[in-house]
Amino acid sequence: MTFSALGLSDELVRAVSERGYTEPTPIQAQAIPVVLSGGDLLAGAQTGTGKTAGFTLPILQRLTASAKPATGKAPIRALVLIPTRELAAQVEESVRDYGKYLKLTSMTMIGGVNINPQIQRLKSRVDILVATPGRLLDHLQQKTLDLSHIEILVLDEADRMLDMGFIRDIKKILAILPRQRQNLLFSATFSDEIKQLADGLLNKPAMIEVARRNATAELITQKIYPVDRERKRELLTHLIKEYNWHQVLVFTRTKHGANKLAEQLNKDDIPALAIHGNKSQAARTRALAEFKTGKLQVLVATDIAARGIDIIELPHVVNFEMPNVSEDYVHRIGRTGRAGSEGEASSLVCIDEHKLLWDIERLTKREIPVVQVPGFEPDPRIKAEPILNGQNRGQGGGRKQQGQGQGRGGQGQARTRAAPRTGSGPSRTNAATGKPAARAPASHRSGGYGR
Ligand code: AMP
C-alpha cells in the first residue's frame, strides 16, 4: 500500500516521503479514504499510531481542491481541537510540514502565551486553525475569531479532552460552528461520555479502530526494577550511566517530584530538566526542543505535561513513580517504540506501589518481567506506606482521581492476590546475566510485585 494509492496528490506524497514515511500506517490506510470522501469519522487510535497524518493529509487535500484564490483574506475552513498546548503546536507543525508544497496556511492557537500576536496573525489568511479550547474561547469572547466558515472539524484525543474537563468548552464551540460540516473524532478509549459526544456530533460516521498500544506492545520492552522507595534516584542514575541511556523520558507523580528529581540528576552529572504545568510555555518549549535534539539527556515530566510529546524513536521511558491511574501507564509507555521503532519502558517499583502495578498488569493483560539489579534488592523490613501526594492532578482541571488511597495496597493486598500469578519465575531475570534470577526470599515473593 502506498500513499498515492490512497488517492493523495503528488504534493502530499512528496512531503510525506521527504519525512521518511514509506507506507501508510493502518490508521492512515483506513482514515485517509474516508476523510477524502467527505464523510464523518469515528476513529479509535492512540498517539503513536500515525493518526495526525491520518487526518491532516486528507484535510489538506480537500481544502486545496476547493481553495479560494491565494490572495487576500479567506475564512478559516478547518478547525482542529487539541487538549494540550504542546500537542497543538506539534500538530500544527505537521500541518505545515505535510502541506509545504501546497498554498494553504495554518496557525496554532494556544494559551500560556500572549494573545496579541495571535490577534495580529488572525488578520491575515488562516486556512487551518489548530487550537486548545480555552484560548479559542478567549478569542471568541473578544470577537477576534470568525468560525462561521468551518467546513471540517477535528476533535483529537477526545477522551483526554473530557478527562481534562473540557466538555463544556467543547459544547460552546460546537454551538457556534456551521451546521453543515465534516466531523472527525479521534479517541484512544470509548467511554459512555465519548459515545454520547460522538452521537451528538457525528453524522453516519465510518468507524475505524486500530490496535491499542497495549495490544501492540511487542515493540516495547517492559521491565520492572524492584527497589526501595528511598533508593530510586540512585538506581535511576545507575541505570542511565551503566547502560548509557540517552533521551530518557522520566515520569513522576507530582510537579514537585519532577523538579526535585531533575535537580538531583543534574548533581549526578546527568543533564535533566523538568516540564509540568507550572512551567511557562516558553520554558516547556525550550526543554522539549533540547530534549529532541539530544542535548538534554533526561526530561522529567508529569503525566499531563508529557501528553503532547512526540518524538520519533524515543528509546527510553522510565516510570520513576507508578501512575495512580492505570491507563496513564499505557499512555506513558506509548511514548516509546512509536510507529515501528523499538523502545524500552522501565518501571522503578517500590513496596508502596504493588497495588498500582497489579492494576496495570490487569489492564494490559500481561505480566511485566521483573529485573533485579544486584545491589538494589529491596530491604524486606521496609513496610508499605500510603501514597499521599498525588497532587499533580491539578493540571488537568476536572480530571478524575481514581487512584486515591491505592497506595495502601502494599503487602497485605498483594499477598491475597499473589495466588493466581505465582510461578512467574521465568520472567524474573537477573540484570547482570540476562538469565532467570534466583527466586526471591519468601518474604519478598509474598510482596509479589502486585501479583
Ligand atoms: P501520531 O500518532 O500522529 O502522533 O504519530 C506518531 C509518530 O509516527 C510521529 O512521530 C510521526 O511522525 C510518525 N509517523 C506517522 N506516519 C508515519 C508513517 N506512515 N511511517 C512512519 N512514521 C510515521
Annotated CATH topology of the largest domain: Rossmann fold
Within the largest sheet, what's the order of strands?
3-4-2-5-6-1-7
Q: Write down the overall geometry.
A: elongated
- The level-1 CATH class of the largest domain: Alpha Beta
Strand content: 5-15%
Which consecutive residue ranges, at least 5 long each, have pLDDT under 50? 213-217, 390-448
Total helical elements: 17
CATH architecture name of the largest domain: 3-Layer(aba) Sandwich
Per DSSP E runs of 2 or more residues, the count of β-strands stands at: 15
Count of the separate structural domains: 2
Tell me the distance between the termini: 43 Å
Helix content: 25-40%
Q: Write out the distinct hetero groups bound to the structure.
A: adenosine monophosphate
C-alpha-based Rg, rounded: 23 Å
**Average pLDDT:** 82
What does this structure look like?
The chain is α/β, with parallel strands linked by helices and 451 residues long. The chain folds into 2 domains: 4-209, 3-Layer(aba) Sandwich (Rossmann fold); 220-444, P-loop containing nucleotide triphosphate hydrolases (Rossmann fold), CATH 3.40.50.300. Helix content is 37%, strand content 15%. The chain contains 17 helices and 15 strands. The chain has a 7-stranded parallel beta sheet with strand order 3-4-2-5-6-1-7, sandwiched between helices. It has a 6-stranded parallel beta sheet with strand order 8-13-12-9-11-10, with helices on both faces. Helix 3 crosses helix 4, helix 6 (133-141) crosses helix 8 (167-176) and helix 14 packs across helix 15 (354-364). The longest helix is centred in the N-terminal third of the chain and has 15 residues, at 51-65. The protein is elongated, with a radius of gyration of 23 Å. The two termini are 43 Å apart. It binds adenosine monophosphate. Adenosine monophosphate is lined by residues 21, 24-25, 28, 47-53, 310, 312, 338-339. Adenosine monophosphate binds at residues 21, 24-25, 28, 47-53, 310, 312, 338-339.
